[in-house]
């Protein structure tokens, strides 16, 4: 089986409806669909049962948080690759998994782009993540809603570290590069709409990520500090004015 699509949910019936509808309407057939619900007390289980015919596996029981729930999904996944489409996120079109499957070529981590959806309903243009390496991972992350990860790699690393609150997906990517020299590949597809409602702040994630690096890979700390200084300069007004000036000069 080519792909395991995993959805986790807790008390987000409306978001779950949107997610499950987008997954179960896919034209692609070589995938399984797994839903892990954290014992929701709203109408989430009713939504799951509505789409039950399109599911390979589902469960509704208490868990220990988002990473524990995602690890439960990994534990039952049988596809070559896993992608997480959590409640509120949804695929851009019914044929997107069919298109993406052509790129699932054996590399460990294959990723596309996402649209961000905010609480006020606004949607950003696609987030073009750079071609990934360890240097870039020290200041950015990949959206799991557009990332296909080899199931064997997820199992080798024991899934996501559950002791972290928000930075576990980022740490997994760092760990993949450092310990397994995982191959990353960017593909020219927009995969999904990423629901930013309720997502932990970038500051929280950054602080926790630094703590994880300090504990496991302290040799990266100087590089992270240099990257932060560079990004601070790139966002500064003098740098932005210089960029505009150079752009005008090139345009002449």
From TrEMBL:
Domain of life: Bacteria
Gene3D superfamilies: Spore Coat Polysaccharide Biosynthesis Protein SpsA, Chain A
Domain Glycosyltransferase 2-like: 4-145
Keyword flag Glycoprotein: no
One Gene Ontology MF term: transferase activity
InterPro entries for the chain: Glyco_trans_2-like, Glycosyltransf_2, Nucleotide-diphossugar_trans
Keywords: Transferase
Annotated protein name in UniProt: Glycosyltransferase
């Amino acid at each position: 089986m080519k792909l395991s699509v995993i959805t986790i949910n807790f008390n987000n019936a409306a978001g779950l409806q949107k997610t499950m509808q987008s997954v179960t309407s896919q034209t692609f057939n070589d995938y399984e669909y797994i839903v892990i619900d954290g014992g929701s007390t709203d109408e989430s289980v009713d939504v799951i049962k509505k789409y039950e015919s399109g599911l390979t596996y589902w469960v509704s029981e208490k868990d220990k948080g988002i990473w524990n729930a995602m690890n439960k999904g990994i534990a039952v996944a049988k596809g070559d690759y896993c992608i997480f489409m959590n409640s509120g996120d949804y695929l851009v079109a019914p044929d997107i998994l069919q298109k993406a499957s052509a790129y699932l070529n054996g590399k460990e981590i294959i990723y596309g782009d996402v649209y961000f959806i905010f609480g006020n309903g606004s949607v950003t243009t696609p987030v073009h993540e750079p071609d990934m390496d360890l240097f870039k991972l020290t200041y950015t992350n990949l959206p799991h809603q557009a990332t296909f990860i080899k199931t064997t790699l997820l199992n080798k690393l024991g899934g996501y570290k559950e002791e972290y609150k928000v930075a576990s997906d980022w740490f997994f990517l760092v760990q993949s590069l450092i310990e397994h020299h995982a191959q990353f590949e960017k593909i020219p597809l927009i995969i999904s709409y990423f629901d930013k409602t309720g997502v932990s702040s970038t500051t929280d994630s950054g602080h926790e990520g630094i703590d994880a690096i300090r504990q496991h890979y302290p040799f990266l700390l100087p590089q992270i500090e240099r990257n932060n200084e560079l990004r601070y300069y790139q966002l500064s007004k003098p740098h932005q004015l210089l960029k505009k000036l150079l752009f005008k000069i090139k345009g002449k």
